[in-house]
């Protein structure tokens, strides 16, 4: 039903606000494919996905107006705006696709797994994996498609594989070597099989080995005895009068002698000859055991043997499987094989495979190092102080005392295993690492030593090097140190540069420890640094480059003074091996939940039981098998009431189910999560029962809730007792037919849907919906009761007016309509409809229109026809020429079928009424009539009155030209030329027509055209022409009427040599190119070369160039030191780096470019040596007097620096020493007194009552 509302007119547009269903296709003249998520206006439907709209259904226009498909009009802005179909049509790409809006349309992308995009349907549709015959999907089973996936139902003897894609043979046991109860589990070509002990056979239904009843065939195995079965064997009990045969335990012979009791064979038979050597089940045969296989008693071969032509022969496993004995050599043996392993591998206890040999298990391997086992080999990583041997299989001690230069200065070196120690001299202390002798003893330092007297005590104790190695210790003024004091060594003796920073470099031994030596010092580098050749600097060691074995299996990254290992995923850094070693992920208890964790190099894997599947995270096993879910288990243990759709056991048992699977099994009592939740990604997530069990809410809408679900019914529907089925209690109109546009033929009254659709109805409700078709699941759900029986109705009584135009007859299943004459059953067989004779018999009325009437028809005749007398069903022609008096005035009447026509004579035509012939005025209607005369019209025709020079044609309807030249040549003296309507006289060349137009006279060309023969030539007149008399520069033409110029450039090629010859009328001229002049001195005019360099022109070349004449031109060659440029010659900058300036002057000179050359000028601090290329260093210390006052001058390349005396500071430019004001810099001096600064020192003037202390720096 369509909801109508008031339409509004805006800007001349009529806006239709009606709401109705939208259909995606029209098929068989019916609207199909209703968009269930969309009830909208016709405009929106037809502009998006619709082909039809509304109830009754209306076909969408081929071209919507005012906007194209994909757009809607904005009636205020009068613009067409793009429709976002993704929002306007919810679910346009289906539940499993992603809608992306585009301008004027949309597209569906990224269908979920198990779906593909259907261009025709315009959405994501399920992939029927079972229809793909190219794959081995569900091998050994049956493929059943489901939404977004499929499942395999395996044949008998097969089970579903772990990935659920095929069916594998069912293993009879779980682990190779396990006890199979009266047998042993062994691996065969068809999987794990239970190989039963002698006297047992495998029962596949019970999946175990059961006793063979050797006596089941009536005891025929025992001769003259009763066969008694035992577990795994049997015995023969001899009949009375018989005893066991001595050589055959299954045979009893008659007893000779006293009667004895029945004897029993004490042991089972061992041999009985037969075709295959087998006489009973369980008997030993060659390389096997007798067994009944497929009803035949024969030898079942032991492992390692195969049955060929009645015998068990050895099977060559090495040839059968080339991959056997990896990392070794396979050697075949009778009934088996063994592996001879390669170096680095050892055989397993059964000698069936080779496994890595762990060389590191031997304690003697890699002494003084760390042994690292690898697959098939091993390697050593040595401890500090040890190095790899030549064969790299052991670690030997490094003798540091002999390998390290200047080791243990101020002491003695002693080598130890993996290390060394220093034994220090007196006055030195051993460092904490025992690798250095340090000057650490402090004592009193004296600024003056004279005549064995120490004076001027310094203010704090110093080491001997700090005291004696300062700049104040000179030959003129020695210092002293110690208690008792002793004179410091003279300055020429060694200075401890490490402890005395006076004048020392600020960056002394960066990244190292400074170690004083006799007359020098060395840097003992920190770990990760290496000393340079002079041992004054430490450069970083790139451990990654120098030791490729570092960070094995990882990436080594160098860092300042060290390195670090970046290990890949699955590996961790091991400080012992200094490499990346495998991380055992299986130590984490959260790995492989529900399965077995197997660690391997760099990773791990979870091995799930056969019925479980590894989750995509690889960290736990989940059961993805899908099967029926059962709501109930009856008293007999049978499962009942399965839920629609196949689900996993967890989804079933955590929601609606009591049992799961086929055959069904009870749900477990304990689970990881509460009911309504499933375990996913290490957490419990809500189960959506609505998507897991499609149709769980029959006739209603399923609403998922946390841990459960609810069924919601539409208005007019009620939930039944199960709370999962919605019962329709609504009453509405019942329609007997449904067309492509609407529901028609309503039945009087209001009915429930089942009463309507299960009897006479094809559609029901408001809005009308089509009833389900018969033999469909929807029809059975609506029209069958709980017992599955079809609901019965008396349609003739319940539906008044059914079988209109006929009689309703009730039947046991339905009803029949018996129609009246002129009526027939409609397509529903539920009503009698009028037979439309006009439609079923085309052309029934011939020359009339067929009008259908209830139970018959009549003919309405067309104009020109009439009904035959007494017959309204036939139309006959009317003869108007006989019935009408003179219908054609001025013409002839001709009768036609259904009409008549008038025919007019020539010169007349029919007037608009078609009944009268009128005269045609040809002179007025056609202006081209009589073009060479005057047209004269008359009734029924016309004639032409011709002009002078023309004459009338025979029919007088045209004018023909008269040829005057045919009579006396038109009285012309020469020739006559006829023209349309007249003629003209013409004269030959050289003569001119006279004024009378008939005679000709001579033309004097020499007078009328004086230069007709050219300049310098003469003209002579003759009758009807002229002749020329030519000069020497011209030649006379063949007709003697013109003079032809002679081309001197062609006739004399030597003219204008080196130039261009240009011909002129009666002459020629030479055009000389630039660089040549015309030379008329020679016998032939030519172009001679001009010497530009000798001409009076000045500055023809650059002033720094030389001019050189060439034929027709000249060149300028630049002088040395110059190069060619656009403007002339420019100076070459020899000091430019591209010109090799580095080779022209030494590094202590600066190259100065000059015009055409260059000079080398020495840098500041250097002077020239005389060769204009080399500069020598200026020794400022000797050349500048008084330099570095209060300090020492040190000459350095290009300059000098000062080393200041004690009490002086170096200036910022390092070229002078300025006094240190100790009174300002050291506030802790001269307490109880006044500090007075003096050059190079200070003194304290004590207050009254105080005196200088012994260090002279304070008052006490």
TrEMBL record:
<keyword id="KW-0325">Glycoprotein</keyword>
<dbReference type="InterPro" id="IPR017878">
    <property type="entry name" value="TB_dom"/>
</dbReference>
<dbReference type="InterPro" id="IPR049883">
    <property type="entry name" value="NOTCH1_EGF-like"/>
</dbReference>
<dbReference type="Pfam" id="PF12661">
    <property type="entry name" value="hEGF"/>
</dbReference>
<keyword id="KW-1015">Disulfide bond</keyword>
<dbReference type="GO" id="GO:0005509">
    <property type="term" value="F:calcium ion binding"/>
</dbReference>
<dbReference type="InterPro" id="IPR000742">
    <property type="entry name" value="EGF"/>
</dbReference>
<dbReference type="InterPro" id="IPR026823">
    <property type="entry name" value="cEGF"/>
</dbReference>
<protein>
    <submittedName>
        <fullName>Fibrillin-1</fullName>
    </submittedName>
</protein>
<keyword id="KW-0964">Secreted</keyword>
<dbReference type="Pfam" id="PF00008">
    <property type="entry name" value="EGF"/>
</dbReference>
<dbReference type="Pfam" id="PF12662">
    <property type="entry name" value="cEGF"/>
</dbReference>
<dbReference type="InterPro" id="IPR009030">
    <property type="entry name" value="Growth_fac_rcpt_cys_sf"/>
</dbReference>
<dbReference type="InterPro" id="IPR036773">
    <property type="entry name" value="TB_dom_sf"/>
</dbReference>
<dbReference type="InterPro" id="IPR000152">
    <property type="entry name" value="EGF-type_Asp/Asn_hydroxyl_site"/>
</dbReference>
<dbReference type="InterPro" id="IPR052080">
    <property type="entry name" value="vWF_C/EGF_Fibrillin"/>
</dbReference>
<keyword id="KW-0732">Signal</keyword>
<keyword id="KW-0245">EGF-like domain</keyword>
<keyword id="KW-0272">Extracellular matrix</keyword>
<dbReference type="Pfam" id="PF00683">
    <property type="entry name" value="TB"/>
</dbReference>
<dbReference type="GO" id="GO:0048731">
    <property type="term" value="P:system development"/>
</dbReference>
<dbReference type="InterPro" id="IPR013032">
    <property type="entry name" value="EGF-like_CS"/>
</dbReference>
<dbReference type="InterPro" id="IPR018097">
    <property type="entry name" value="EGF_Ca-bd_CS"/>
</dbReference>
<keyword id="KW-0677">Repeat</keyword>
<dbReference type="InterPro" id="IPR001881">
    <property type="entry name" value="EGF-like_Ca-bd_dom"/>
</dbReference>
<dbReference type="Pfam" id="PF07645">
    <property type="entry name" value="EGF_CA"/>
</dbReference>
């Amino acid at each position: 039903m369509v909801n109508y509302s008031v339409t509004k007119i805006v800007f001349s547009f009529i806006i239709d606000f009606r709401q109705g269903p939208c259909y995606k296709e029209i098929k068989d003249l019916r609207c199909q494919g209703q968009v269930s998520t969309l009830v909208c206006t016709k405009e929106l439907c037809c502009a998006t996905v619709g082909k039809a709209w509304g109830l009754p259904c209306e076909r969408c226009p081929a071209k919507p107006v005012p906007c194209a498909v994909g757009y809607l009009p904005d009636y205020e802005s009068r613009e067409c705006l793009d429709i976002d179909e993704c929002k306007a049509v919810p679910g346009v790409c289906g539940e499993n696709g992603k809608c992306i809006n585009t301008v004027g349309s949309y597209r569906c992308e990224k269908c979920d797994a198990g779906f593909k995009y259907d261009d025709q349907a315009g959405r994501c549709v399920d992939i029927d994996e079972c229809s793909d015959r190219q794959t081995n999907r569900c091998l050994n089973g049956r493929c059943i498609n489901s939404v977004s996936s499929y499942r395999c139902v395996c044949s008998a003897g097969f089970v579903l594989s772990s990935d659920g894609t095929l069916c594998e043979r069912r293993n009879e046991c779980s682990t190779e070597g396990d006890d199979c109860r009266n047998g042993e589990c062994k691996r065969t070509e068809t999987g794990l099989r239970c190989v039963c002990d002698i006297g047992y056979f495998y029962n596949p239904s019970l999946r175990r080995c059961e006793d063979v009843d050797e006596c089941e065939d009536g005891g025929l195995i025992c001769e003259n005895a009763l066969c008694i079965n035992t577990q795994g064997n049997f015995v023969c009990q001899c009949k009375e009068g018989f005893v066991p045969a001595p050589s055959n335990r299954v045979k009893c012979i008659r007893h000779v002698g006293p009667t004895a009791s029945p004897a029993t064979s004490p042991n089972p038979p061992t041999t009985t000859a037969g075709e295959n050597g087998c006489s009973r089940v369980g008997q030993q045969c060659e390389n096997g055991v007798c067994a009944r296989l497929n009803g035949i008693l024969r030898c079942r071969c032991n492992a390692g043997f195969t049955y060929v032509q009645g015998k068990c022969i050895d099977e060559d496993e090495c040839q059968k499987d080339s991959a056997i004995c990896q990392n070794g050599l396979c050697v075949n043996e009778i009934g088996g094989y063994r592996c001879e392993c390669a170096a680095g591998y050892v055989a397993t206890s059964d000698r069936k495979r080779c496994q890595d040999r762990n060389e590191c298990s031997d304690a003697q391997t890699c002494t003084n190092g760390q042994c690292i086992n690898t697959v098939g080999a091993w390697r050593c990583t040595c401890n500090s102080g040890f190095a790899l041997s030549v064969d790299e299989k052991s670690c030997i001690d490094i003798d540091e005392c002999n390998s390290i230069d200047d080791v243990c200065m101020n002491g003695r070196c002693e080598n130890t295993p993996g290390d060394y120690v220093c034994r220090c001299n007196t006055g030195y202390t051993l460092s904490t690492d025992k690798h250095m002798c340090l000057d650490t003893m402090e004592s009193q330092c004296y600024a003056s030593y004279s005549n064995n007297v120490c004076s001027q005590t310094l203010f704090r104790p110093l080491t001997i090097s700090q005291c004696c190695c300062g700049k104040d210790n000179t030959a003129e003024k020695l210092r002293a140190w110690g208690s008792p004091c002793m004179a410091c060594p003279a300055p020429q003796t060694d200075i401890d540069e490490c402890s005395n920073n006076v004048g020392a470099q600020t960056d002394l031994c960066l990244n190292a420890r400074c170690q004083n030596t006799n007359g020098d010092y060395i840097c003992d580098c920190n770990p990760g640094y290496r000393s340079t050749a002079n041992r004054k600097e430490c450069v970083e060691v790139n451990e990654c480059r120098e030791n490729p074995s570092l960070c094995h299996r990882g990436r080594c990254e160098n860092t300042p003074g060290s390195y670090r290992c970046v290990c890949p995923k699955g590996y961790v850094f091991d400080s012992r091996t200094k490499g990346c070693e495998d991380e055992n992920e299986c130590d984490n208890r959260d790995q492989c939940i529900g399965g077995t964790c197997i660690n391997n190099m760099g990773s791990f894997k979870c091995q799930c039981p056969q019925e479980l599947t590894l989750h995509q995270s690889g960290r736990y096993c989940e059961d993805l098998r899908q099967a029926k879910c059962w709501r109930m288990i009856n008293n007999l243990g049978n499962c009942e009431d399965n839920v629609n759709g196949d689900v996993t056991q967890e989804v079933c048992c955590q929601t609606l189910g009591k049992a799961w699977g086929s055959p069904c099994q009870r749900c477990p009592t304990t689970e990881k999560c509460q009911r309504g939740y499933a375990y996913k990604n290490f957490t419990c997530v809500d189960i959506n029962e609505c998507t897991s069990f499609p149709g769980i809410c029959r006739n209603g809408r399923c609403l998922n809730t946390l841990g459960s679900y609810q069924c919601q019914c539409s208005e007019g529907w009620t939930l039944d007792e199960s709370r999962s089925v919605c019962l329709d209690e609504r009453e509405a109109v019942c329609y007997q037919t449904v067309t492509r546009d609407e529901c028609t033929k309503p039945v009087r009254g209001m009915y429930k849907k089942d009463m309507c659709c299960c009897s006479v109805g094809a559609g029901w409700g408001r809005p009308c919906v089509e009833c389900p078709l018969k033999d469909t699941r929807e029809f059975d759900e609506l029209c069958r009761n709980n017992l599955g029986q079809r609901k019965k109705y008396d349609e003739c009584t319940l539906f008044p007016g059914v079988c209109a135009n006929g009689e309703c007859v009730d039947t046991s299943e339905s009803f029949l309509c018996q129609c009246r004459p002129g009526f027939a059953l409609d397509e529903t067989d539920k009503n009698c409809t009028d037979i439309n004779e006009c439609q079923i018999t085309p052309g029934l009325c011939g020359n009339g229109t067929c009008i259908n009437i209830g139970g018959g028809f009549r003919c309405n005749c067309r104009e020109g026809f009439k009904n035959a007398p007494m017959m309204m069903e036939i139309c006959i022609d009317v003869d108007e020429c006989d019935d009408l008096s003179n219908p054609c005035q001025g013409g002839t009447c001709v009768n036609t079928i259904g009409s008549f026509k008038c025919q007019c004579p020539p010169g007349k035509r029919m007037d608009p009424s078609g009944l009268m012939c009128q005269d045609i005025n040809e002179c007025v209607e056609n202006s081209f009539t009589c073009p060479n005369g005057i047209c004269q019209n008359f009734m029924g025709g016309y004639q032409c009155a011709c002009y002078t020079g023309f004459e009338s044609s025979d029919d007088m309807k045209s004018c023909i030209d008269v040829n005057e030249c045919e009579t006396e040549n038109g009285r012309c003296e020469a020739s006559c030329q006829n023209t349309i309507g007249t003629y003209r006289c013409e004269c030959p060349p050289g003569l001119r027509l006279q004024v009378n137009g008939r005679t000709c006279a001579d033309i004097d060309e020499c007078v009328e055209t004086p230069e007709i023969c050219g300049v310098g030539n003469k003209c002579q007149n003759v009758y009807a022409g002229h002749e020329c008399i030519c000069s020497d520069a011209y030649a006379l033409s063949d007709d003697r009427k013109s003079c032809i110029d002679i081309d001197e450039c062609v006739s004399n090629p030597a003219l204008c040599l080196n130039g261009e010859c240009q011909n002129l009328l009666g002459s020629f001229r030479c055009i000389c190119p630039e660089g040549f002049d015309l030379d008329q001195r020679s016998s032939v005019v030519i172009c001679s070369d001009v010497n530009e360099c000798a001409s009076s022109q000045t500055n023809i070349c650059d002033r720094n160039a030389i001019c050189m004449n060439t034929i027709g031109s000249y060149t300028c060659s630049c002088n040395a030191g110059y190069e060619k440029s656009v403007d002339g010659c420019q100076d070459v900058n020899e000091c430019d780096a591209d010109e090799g300036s580095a080779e022209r002057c030494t590094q202590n000179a600066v190259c100065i470019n000059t015009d055409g050359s260059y000079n080398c000028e020495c840098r500041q601090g250097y002077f020239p040596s005389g060769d204009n290329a080399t500069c020598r260093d200026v020794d400022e210390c000797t050349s500048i007097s008084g330099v570095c006052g209060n300090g020492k001058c040190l000459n350095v390349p290009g300059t000098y620096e000062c080393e200041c005396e004690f009490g002086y500071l170096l200036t910022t430019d390092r070229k002078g020493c300025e006094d240190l004001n100790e009174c300002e810099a050291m506030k802790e001096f001269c307490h109880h007194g006044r500090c007075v600064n003096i050059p190079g020192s200070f003194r304290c003037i004590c207050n009254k009552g105080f005196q200088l202390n012994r260090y002279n720096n304070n008052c006490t």
